[in-house]
Write a structure and sequence with these properties.
The structure holds two protein chains of two kinds. Chain A is an all-alpha fold. Helix content of chain A is 71%, strand content 0%. Chain B is of the alpha+beta class. Chain B has a five-stranded mixed β-sheet. A three-stranded antiparallel β-sheet of chain B has the order 8-9-10. In chain B, strands 13-14-15 form a three-stranded antiparallel β-sheet. The longest helix of chain B is centred in the middle third of the chain and has 29 residues, at 246-274. Chain B is globular. The chains are: A mainly alpha, B alpha+beta. At the A-B interface, helix 5 and helix 10 of A face strand 8, helix 8 and helix 10 of B.
Chain lengths: 309, 519
């Protein structure tokens, strides 16, 4: 059983994450009264891209060539580190700071790769990504700090186990911190209102501008990594703030139930993202800092409440 | 009319025909004549040239003024004998800078004093000494590929960098190159370079038979097919002295307004889409599609092609269709207004469009802006009111839709208002349309040595077609001024100081034609 659980833990994120993107796109299509592609379309896209030849700018250095592998590897490792369906099966590096800054390595290399080929789009994509993620990083950490304070640990699995053990009197700060976390999630994953992931407007993009030079296999990897990252954030959000149902034993039944609960909760997050992207316009670039600042305020209030309650 | 034509140089003979008053001016006097006319609140709408070396041993340059208060075009012209230079008026009519550069590209006449002598429509790969609109240029010429460089305006300063965008874009739009000089995210200078879809329209007009000329006019700008062919037909009808049947006038009004409805609602949707407001984007396309299908049902063409003919229209609207259309448009407008109300209630959408891409009214005035862009800064210009054509004298728009702020939201609101007006006009026209012929049976015979102007307010703005005939009564030149030729020069002003992520939205709020400009 333990082997099965480990295999699941390691492969779950990369295998399931593209489905999430497919679901978001399908919901958005429904909201626009379009038929939309199948929810399995992202897998087909990856297969298609993996079969394609790629073009790499002659001005690009090793960074552009290596970045997709680094970015993908980062999400792969982090996906295996965080509590997904069980609080006991995960790689040892499940510390809050380890996870966040490992993800930052991916962001860093992607931003470098954006500038590497020397195209103007990549440059401003990277510049915007760095502006947003520098602010979002603080919001992200501060949103989890209230939980860490509650549980007295920065280990994510221990936090999940701790919060699932009860803290009903702290439901208000947990909700506040979750709002902050959600905003950080949208910023880190360049979703609305920060970025328009299905944009056709090359001048407004953030993430798509950075990866504009990629094609074929490397593009598949970068997009797959983006899907993984979104799944990691969604899973972290539901497992840290609302860990009800997460398995604490390693029985088959507990894991199966825990997986179902995880999928249901992550699905809810994905549907919320899709609804948000259907119902609002993207924010002006210079208003994004206001939104992140709002998230930090929520987080600080949550920390204050945790300390004083 | 009199008050416009006082204080002209002594000995000027004014020649009247239809709604045109034209007179020759010595090249040296043209600047002062233009200043005099401008001081009477007339705006210079277009400049174009004709090559009349074979018959009259000269080039003529036409300066078309449109009078805002009466249906009148005042056309001073100059003759260039033995010279290939003409005095530039770009200093007193800045919008004409592009017209003069076009003349330079196409006819090889140099506007002396125009500060910008770069090519406009023909690019570096076109040989320098080959001028396609000269009569001695054979249409089947295959020129050798030339080389050269094009200098964009350069901004110096610490941290200034350039972003070249296009000519190929990420979306399915026409090709055009934009050069942004940036300080961080804000635009310090935006220069558009067009001409990528130049396809020799004006040269083709000299060769094709008349019926095909009408089809060619439809293809000047696909989304304004009906308006362009209408402008062309009106000019030709004027030269031929044809009065079209009254029912045809009403039908032209109805079709022209259907085209306006489809494009305006499409643009309203696209503006929402470009802010990322997907709901509005999807609905804009849905509402546009309804109108396109009505077009298809009524005329067999979604873009109303093949409808206009010299002397009237070819597609009638039956009595049952008339009643059906009134009902359809009523429910369509209710539907459209619901979508627009949702957009107006969306705080995120409003935040994107309000204050974005403002156009300074002074700039708009100086460039005599046309169409939606002009009305969005409060310049009440509308050819349907100023030069009533088709049946607009009988079913006029109740008011000219104006806004004052000149930002993206103002252009959005102008379109929203015009949608309402269009439905009113169509409904009114359908109710009052007389029965009768739709196409005149008279034989079309063009007067020799004539000049006529076709003027139509397309959904984008005022379209002008200057048509001239030679001594045999054949069309010798069709000069087209799409509203885009003027308004493209304003986009850079709107973009200046804005952040680059807002530029696609600003550009969409103008929604200018590349092909209409490149011809």
């Amino acid at each position: 059983m333990i082997y099965l659980a480990w295999i699941l833990q390691i492969l779950l994120v990369p295998l399931v994450a593209p489905l999430g993107i497919g679901i978001i796109n399908a919901v958005k299509a429904k909201m626009q009264r379009r038929k939309g592609p199948s929810i399995f379309q992202p897998y087909r896209n990856f297969v298609k891209l993996l079969h394609k030849d790629e073009v790499i700018s002659k001005d690009a250095s090793w960074i552009a060539k290596a970045a997709p592998f680094i970015v993908f590897a980062v999400t792969f490792v982090v996906g295996a580190c965080i509590p997904l369906f069980s609080t006991s099966v995960h790689l040892p590096a499940s510390d809050l700071f380890a996870v966040i800054y490992t993800l930052a390595i991916g962001t860093f290399f992607l931003a470098l790769a954006g500038m590497d080929a020397g195209s103007a789009f990549g440059g401003f994509g990277s510049s915007r990504e760095m502006t947003v993620s520098a602010m979002a990083e603080g919001a992200l950490i501060f949103s989890i700090v209230p939980l860490a304070l509650l549980c007295g640990t920065t280990d994510l699995a221990d936090i999940a186990a701790g919060v699932s053990g009860g803290y009903h009197q702290f439901i208000a700060p947990i909700l506040l911190a979750f709002v902050g976390f959600t905003i950080a999630l949208l910023a880190e994953n360049t979703r609305y209102p920060f970025d328009n992931p299905d944009t056709h407007l090359e001048l407004t993009m953030i993430h798509e501008a950075m990866i504009l030079e990629y094609s074929g296999k490397r593009l598949a990897l970068v997009e797959w990594a983006a899907a993984n990252k979104l799944f990691i954030f969604a899973a972290l959000g539901v497992n840290l703030f609302f860990p009800v149902g997460i398995a604490t034993t390693l029985s088959f039944g507990a894991i199966a139930l825990s997986l179902l609960v995880l999928f249901a909760k992550v699905l809810a997050v994905y549907i919320c993202i899709a609804l948000l992207e259907s119902l609002i316009a993207k924010f002006r670039f210079f208003r994004l800092s206001h939104l992140i600042f709002t998230a930090i305020i929520f987080n600080v209030i949550a920390i204050g409440m945790v300390i004083t309650l | 009319m009199k008050e416009f034509l006082i204080d002209l140089p002594k000995g000027t003979k004014v020649q009247h025909s239809g709604n045109i008053a034209m007179f020759e001016v010595a090249p040296a006097d043209i600047s002062s004549v233009i200043s005099a006319l401008q001081s009477k609140n007339l705006s210079l709408a277009m400049i174009d040239a004709t090559d009349e070396r074979t018959t009259k041993k000269c080039f003529k340059i036409w300066y078309v003024f449109s009078a805002p208060t009466e249906n009148l075009f005042i056309i001073p012209y100059i003759r260039l004998v033995g010279t290939e230079q003409f005095p530039s008026v770009a200093a007193i009519a800045p919008a004409m800078g592009w017209c003069e550069r076009k003349i330079k590209d196409m006819l090889g006449l140099t506007p002396t004093g125009n500060p910008d002598q770069r090519q406009l429509l023909l690019h570096e790969n076109w040989p320098k000494d080959l001028y396609p609109l000269r009569k001695d240029f054979a249409i089947d010429t295959h020129p050798k590929t030339a080389t050269g460089t094009y200098e964009f305006a350069k901004v110096d300063g610490e941290g200034i960098y350039e972003i070249p965008v296009g000519p190929i874009h990420a979306g399915i739009i026409e090709p055009g190159h934009f050069r942004f000089s940036m300080a961080g995210e804000s635009i310090t200078l935006l220069e558009a370079r067009l001409g990528y879809v130049h396809k020799g329209h004006e040269k083709l007009f000299e060769f094709l038979p008349l019926a095909q000329k009408v089809r060619l006019a439809e293809k000047i700008s696909g989304d304004a097919s009906f308006s362009h062919s209408l402008a062309f037909c009106q000019a030709v009808e004027q030269i031929a002295g044809i009065k079209i049947p009254e029912r045809a006038e009403y039908l032209r009004t109805i079709y022209a307004e259907l085209e306006r409805l489809a494009c305006h609602i499409g643009d309203i949707g696209f503006m929402m889409l470009d802010t990322g407001f997907n709901f509005g984007g999807a609905n804009g396309q849905r509402l546009r599609e309804i109108i396109m299908r009505i077009n298809q049902r009524l005329t067999g063409s979604r873009f109303l092609r093949g409808v206009n003919a010299v002397g009237g229209v070819t597609k009638n609207i039956s009595k049952t269709d008339q009643n059906k259309l009134v009902k359809e448009l009523k429910s369509w407008l209710r539907d459209a207004n619901e979508v627009i109300a949702i957009a107006e209630n969306s705080a995120t959408f409003m935040n994107r469009v309000k204050t974005a891409g403002p156009l300074d009214p002074v700039v708009a005035q100086d460039y005599s802006a046309v169409g939606v862009a002009a009305r969005a800064v409060g310049i009440a210009t509308d050819a349907r009111v100023e030069h009533p054509y088709a049946a607009y004298a009988k079913v006029p728009p109740k008011q000219i839709a104006c806004e004052t702020t000149g930002d993206v939201y103002a252009r959005f609101c102008v379109r929203v208002k015009e949608v309402q007006t269009s439905v009113e006009i169509i409904t009114e026209a359908l109710k009052t349309m007389p029965a009768g012929e739709i196409l005149t049976a008279k034989k079309i015979k063009l007067q020799p040595d004539s000049v006529a102007i076709g003027c139509v307010e397309s959904w984008r703005g005022e379209i002008l077609h200057l048509v001239t005939t030679n001594e045999h009564g054949e069309i010798s030149r069709v000069a087209v001024r799409d509203p885009s030729c003027i308004n493209w020069q304003l986009v850079g002003y709107s973009g200046c100081g804005q952040v680059v992520p807002d530029f696609p939205l600003i550009n969409k709020s103008y929604n200018l034609s590349y092909t209409g400009n490149d011809l």
